[in-house]
UniProtKB/TrEMBL annotation:
InterPro entries: Glcn_transporter. Its main location: membrane. It holds the Pfam family GntP_permease. It is found in: Cell membrane. This is Gluconate:H+ symporter. The keyword Transport applies. The chain crosses the membrane at residues 6-37, 57-76, 96-122, 174-197, 218-241, 253-277, 298-316, 336-369, 412-437. Keywords: Cell membrane, Membrane, Transmembrane, Transmembrane helix, Transport. PANTHER family: GNT FAMILY GLUCONATE TRANSPORTER (PTHR30354), HIGH-AFFINITY GLUCONATE TRANSPORTER (PTHR30354:SF22). It is a multi-pass membrane protein. NCBIfam families: gntP. Belongs to the GntP permease family.
Amino acid sequence: MSYIILIAGIILLIVLITGVKLNAFLSFLVVSILIGLAHGQDIISISTSVQKGIGDILGSLVAIIGLGAMLGKLVADSGAAERIANGLVKGFGRKNLVWALVVTAFVIGIPLFYNVGFVLLVPLIISIASRYKLPAVYIGLPALSALSVTHGYLPPHPSPTALVQQFHADLGQTLLLGLIVAVPAIILAGPVFAMTLRNFNAKPIDTFAVKHKQENELPGMFNSIITAFLPVILITTAAITKSVLHEESMLKTIIISLGEPVTAMLLTVITGIYTLGVRQGRTVNDVSNSLGDAVKDISMIIFVIGGAGALKQVLTDTGISNQIASSLQTMNVHPLFVAWSISAIIRVSVGSATVAGLTTAGIVAPLIASSGVNPSLMVLATGAGSLMFSHVNDPGFWLFKEYFNLSFKQTIRTWSFMETIVSVVGLIGVFMLNYFVK
């Protein structure tokens, strides 16, 4: 009976989001209430579960996601992303433009939200393709594969960060393992796959080009990289320190404290207000107004994550999650594959990587305690599944299609295949790491 209720709930969620076009947050709430009622809960109990689920997941995430949006805004508005991109393209040379753009996308993709990174990179890709007479898809798709991987695998992006909380994983370890899995996924889905696209001569639409800043208006390269990557540096250093320094000391305490995600993000944003704002001639008030706009831009993402938390809590309180976890154990299917498969199915059905990942978390979270699988690897397996075969129900599909002026068939041949490679290679990488990480 639990399976029937869950499957019916997921189907209804898919219909509401993709068919009815109902807001994802409202869809989560409707489905959560109906699942609770179907399992015999009363409205008061369901309301308590919904409120607890929203509060639990957002309590630890709002600060990280909000600060991440602010940092992305600082990096974008200051021209730091453009400085990093220009410097890497210049450093790699014309023969290695594909690799230069991949590294650029990976570097700026960690601190920037996906949509921001996309609209920053694509005009650069189009201008470079025009300047060097190269197919835009050939040099652009590898860069966008790097953006996709950072979006699906790596904190502080919303979905991976929320999964860390849902699975009670260590954020620093997840980031380190995510970087290890990300590299081969990007290489195979990016430059290697792009070798088959050398003769792809679709001409991008000129109207998508944007005006770039003059060289003297951009912040310095060192300043840009250090500010954009400061959270990664602090969090990664803290994770390594935990593993290397076993004895307690003042140094260890300070490093771990600075690497605590909220602290690391707050320090970075404060640093960025000066290095990418005040030092560039902007007033604190002007920068603050811009940061406020950044938070407005990701407000619906926060609501969607809260809705997924509500569904997860209802599944937990009704006992559905535990019943399904117990039955999956008897099927002798590895939890990592279960997480990837469910996430992939929901992704293909709904289109949203965030919805796919967070819905899966509510279903498979009990498997972690019962199977002993590493929570960080569960985060990565779920994230990899959430990137599977992007198609017509994913806004990213249409962004790529329109920016690069492709036909429907060409977009499937390029974008959808790239996303599939990213997802499958990610799963393989997670299983390989499972032999070494406990």
